[in-house]
Amino acid sequence: GTDKIEAISFNLEKVDGPEVCLNPEALAKLRNVRLLHLNHANFVFEPYNLPLELEWLEWHGCPIRWVPENISLQKVAVIDLSGSMIIWLTDSRYQPGKRVSKFYLFTVPYVVVLVVGSHMYLPCMQRFEKLKHLYLSGCMNLRTTFDIAYFPNLEKIVLDNCENLCQLHGFDTLKKLTHLSMKRCSELRELPNSIGQVSCLKFLDISLCTKLSSLPEDLGNWKSLTKFKAKRCGIVVLTETLGTLEKLEKLSLKGCIGIQTLPLSMRKMKSLSKLNISCTRISQFPEDFGMISELTSLKAKGCRIKQLPEGFGMLVKLRTLSVETPKTNHNIKFPSSFCGLCSLEKLTILGGSGSNEADDGFLSSLRSLNFKGSSLPNLPINMSGVTNLSSLNLHDCEQLVFLLHCPPLCPTLKPASAVLWREFRTFQT
């Protein structure tokens, strides 16, 4: 009978007809249930008892406003109360229904993952030695983080869409934290220096933190960081200690319109493979940018890049290069070393104006070439050795006069004009 049931799962969010109310006494009889999903469920009265063997409780849209003081969650490993209404606590020190500023869960000593959404304040809990993952996405009224000393073994924290979060505390105590996501925390103005001391951090996302204007001055302890996302945040200056992130593989600064320069220390980033600086105000790369030897993808669309440094051709592992400039800017100047990009497969150069001399070398690995909207009179590369080209886009290249040594027949071609198309076909025959 009921002793053999170990999992119950249902979702009443979109149930048509009269409201379905459950009897909590029936749940208490299911002694061996370990997984219980009660999403958007209502009870005829509040559940004061849950199955004793329960390890995973998921209750999205939980309607109760306080936790019954005698409820037992001793073996629960996962709690997911996303979108809940919990803002009150029934406790011997408080009268039922009394609004309190903090939410206590003193009876959950073995929590491994805790997910609580849309409650008034972050729980102030006793020390959770087992707590590893903490999800608090969408807690719209969360203004400050908890005393993290209660969670010494946290490995992952997600605070996405906490739009009123403005203060962070105590991150220097998190010796095992590897993942921190704070996307769209639009009221967050600064990262405490304690975050810069988290030595095990591997992933950091501060995208859409529009009021966040700077990073901690010293990032030297982020020795393990491999992925850093800061899309469309308010950062104005990148600290020189960014170059100490020797294990960083992916860096995205897309849409950070306040950033005008890259730190000179970037040459030290030996592991960086993907860099996105699109839609920033960066106008040039450091002279020794070519020393980032592992770089495979560089996106700089919507920037103000005027020229590529002479050492750019040292990026022998670069496979994707995308650069777009406003048409009011001077055309991008290509260095003589440009054709040293022996691994380049996809080249996109959009916009720009002026003239440029074609290089004598060629890029034999190119598969996709996009010069849409460019005002170049000729392409900056010798096309004779581009034998693997499968896509060529010359649409809206109004000033393009000729192609130097056209490639063999290209399956996908968007010509600049009917005249150029006739010339192109003539070259191919």
TrEMBL record:
Taxonomically, the superkingdom here is Eukaryota
Q: Does the keyword Repeat apply?
A: yes
Q: Which ranges carry the Disease resistance R13L4/SHOC-2-like LRR domain?
A: 232-394
Under InterPro entries, the record lists: LRR_dom_sf, LRR_R13L4/SHOC2-like
Kindly list the residue ranges recorded as spanning the membrane. 103-122
In terms of Pfam families, this protein maps to:
LRR_14
Keywords recorded for this protein, A-Z? Membrane, Repeat, Transmembrane, Transmembrane helix
Give start-end ranges for the coiled-coil region(s). none
Q: What is this protein called?
A: Disease resistance R13L4/SHOC-2-like LRR domain-containing protein
The record lists the organism as Nymphaea colorata
